[in-house]
Design brief:
This protein has 17 helices and 13 strands. Strands 3-2-1-4-5-6-7 form a 7-stranded parallel β-sheet, sandwiched between helices. It has a 6-stranded parallel β-sheet with strand order 10-9-8-11-12-13, with helices on both faces. The chain starts with a strand and ends with a helix. Helix 13 crosses helix 16 (341-358). It has helices at residues 11-17, 19-25, 39-42, 63-80, 90-103, 122-138, 147-155, 184-194, 215-226, 244-247, 249-255, 268-274, 289-296, 309-312, 327-339, 341-358, 361-375, and strands at residues 3-7, 30-35, 51-54, 84-88, 107-112, 141-144, 164-165, 201-206, 232-237, 259-262, 277-280, 301-304, 319-322. Strand 8, helix 9 (215-226) and strand 9 (232-237) form a beta-alpha-beta unit. By secondary structure, it is α/β, with parallel strands linked by helices. It folds into 2 domains: 3-174 and 361-375, Glycogen Phosphorylase B (Rossmann fold); 184-358, Rossmann fold, CATH 3.40.50.
């Protein structure tokens, strides 16, 4: 059986995006997973993976550590005899693609999931673009997790259309339709637990809480809504990364009990079920898979009009798009759905239907298996 290897920086990335792909591919290939595992993670079997290898790939730039990881990966690839190496996320992609090319791996794939440099400027932006270009040059083929992101990368001359593709209509792994679904009992139970009235209108943010996700703009927009609507609540779920909530402390304190904060959760589906609208005012996204999860739960979304999100939200049909970084426009879109609950419910129903028909996990996983069978002959 031919051997393939997936490379990520953090094990959580593999768990979130690769779990179902790996379990489908293991029927045809022997799968290895490389990540920056800690001891506990390394001792916990990853479903479908034959070998788990620890390599210290860091998300942030650390020159000495990065060169060391490159050397370790090169030696590992030379010894293991993989027919294909597949990386996900920028740092893992750079190190894995360079190492795989140096080691002579025949098939080298990378999945682009969003560009850090979109919000940067000057020399640093130039450098990051060149590094993404290097990933593409070292790969034999790349996948992009949305059509609009692919168009953007082609326009920026990072990739070529001939050397890239998208799985189905987009998304890195699709959405689990059985896990995310409209669940009235979960909605009632969580609202009772959080002290949120059953007739409240809940705006939800769920994910990594940082400035690039537009959390500051969301807080400011919600504060305007809250001053006019007593029924409005803001629920923010996920780990904080850069102090963005602390920077908005006075505004959040003024909201009182109508601002509810929860940290990391392994049950996002419960929070989706309890919400009325999902908000993702991000500055950059590869696709916005969390929007699909909300859609599958029957929840419409409000998101930035940027590449990636424009594939996940059908504007005026499954949610609303707003100008990125524009608090006024975001607040306006939030109030539109708050005032018209019938329209909001219709958006949610249409979002659920669209997610079911076009972005189900089984469909996207089938596209990945097809990609491998086409490119890596059994």
């Amino acid at each position: 059986m031919k051997k393939i290897c997936f490379v990520v920086s953090e094990p959580m990335t593999a768990k979130a995006f690769l779990l179902d792909h790996v379990q489908a591919l293991r029927k045809h290939y022997e799968v290895t997973l490389v990540a920056n595992f800690d001891d506990e993670q390394l001792a916990t079997p990853f479903p479908g993976v034959t070998v788990m290898k620890r390599i210290p790939i860091q998300r942030n730039i650390r020159l000495i550590t990065d060169l060391y990881a490159l050397l370790l990966l090169y030696m590992f690839f030379r010894k293991a005899g993989f027919c294909a190496v597949h990386s996900v996320t920028p740092k893992a992609g750079l190190i894995a693609m360079v190492a795989a090319r140096m080691a002579g791996v025949e098939h080298r794939f990378h999945t682009f999931t969003g560009q850090v440099w979109v919000g940067k400027s000057g020399l640093f932006r130039w450098l990051l673009i060149r590094l993404d270009r290097l990933i593409f040059l070292c790969a034999t083929h790349v996948l992009v997790d949305s059509p609009s992101q692919r168009d953007f990368l082609v326009q920026q001359r990072v990739i070529t259309r001939a050397g890239s593709g998208v799985l189905g209509e987009g998304s890195i792994c699709g959405v689990n339709l059985q896990r995310f679904w409209p669940d009235p009992s979960a909605r009632e139970a969580l609202r009772n637990e959080l002290g949120v009235p059953c007739d409240a209108f809940v705006f939800l943010f769920l994910g990594r809480v940082n400035r690039d996700k537009g959390v500051s703009e969301l807080v400011q927009a919600f504060a305007r809504i809250a001053s006019r609507w007593d029924s409005a609540y803001l629920l923010v779920v996920g780990p904080e990364e850069d102090g963005v909530l602390a920077a908005n402390g006075p505004v959040l304190e003024s909201l009182g009990s109508r601002y509810v904060r929860k940290g990391f959760t392994s049950q996002p589906e419960v929070y989706m079920a309890a919400a009325d609208v999902f908000c993702l005012p991000s500055y950059r996204e590869g696709f916005g898979s969390v929007i699909l999860e909300a859609a599958s739960a029957g929840i419409p979304s409000i998101g930035s009009r940027i590449y990636g999100i424009t594939d996940a939200i059908e504007d005026g049909k499954t949610g609303l798009l707003h100008r990125a970084r524009d608090v006024d426009d975001l607040a306006e879109k939030m109030e539109l759905l708050l005032k018209d609950r019938s329209r909001c419910r219709q958006f949610g129903e249409d979002a659920r239907r669209r997610a079911t028909e076009r972005f189900g996990m089984d469909r996207v996983v089938g596209e990945m298996v097809g990609f491998y069978q086409l490119n890596v002959r059994l």
